[in-house]
Amino acid sequence: MSEQATELAEQPARSTTDLIAAVEAIIFVADEPVTVRLLADILDEDKQAIEAAVEQLVSEYESRDGGLQLREVAGGWQIATKTQYHEEVRNFLKTRPSAKLSLASLETLAVIAYKQPVTVPEILEIRGVQSASAIKTLLEKRLIVTKGHKETVGRPMLYGTSREFLLQFGLKDLSDLPSIEDFEDLAGSIV
Known about the structure:
Blueprint: H1 3-10, H2 16-29, H3 36-43, H4 47-64, E1 68-73, E2 76-81, H5 86-93, H6 103-115, H7 120-127, H8 132-140, E3 144-149, E4 157-161, H9 163-169, H10 180-190
Helix pairs in contact: 2-4, 3-4, 6-8
C-alpha cells in the first residue's frame, strides 16, 4: 500500500454530524452559492453524502423557524436571511437595495427573462420603445449576456439572463420566475 493510501486508511471516517457542520461552515463563509460537487471535492466525500447533509441542514433551518434559511440559488447553496426580515436587515445596515434599475431597464430585463433568447428588434416589438441604453446597463451590471446570433437577415445578437441575474434575484433557475398569469392577477387586483 502506498504511503498516501495508508494515511487515508488511518483517518477515521467523518461522522454525519461533523460532515453536516463542515458543509454548513463552508456555505456560511462562501461569497457565492456553493455546489454539491464543490463541497464533495473539498470535503473528499461522495456526492450522495453531501446531498444528504444539505437536506438535513435545510430541514434544520426550516424546523428552527429562525431568521436564516439555507436555499438553492443559481445551482448552489447559500445561507440567506428570510425574505420577511429583509426590511429589518436593510434598516440595520442603513443601505438601499443595490440593484437599482430604471423602469426601462426593468421592463427590458423582464422581456429578456421571459422570452430569451431574444433580439433587440424583438424587445422593441414587445416594449414599443428603443432599448439600447437599457441593454447596455443590463450588460454592465452582468444581469444579461449575449447568447450568439439569430440565424436570420442581419444576424442580430441574441440576449439572455446570466448567472448573476439568478444570484441577484435569488432564483434557483428560470422556472422560479413568477408566471405571466401571476402578474396579470396582481395587475387586476391593483386596478
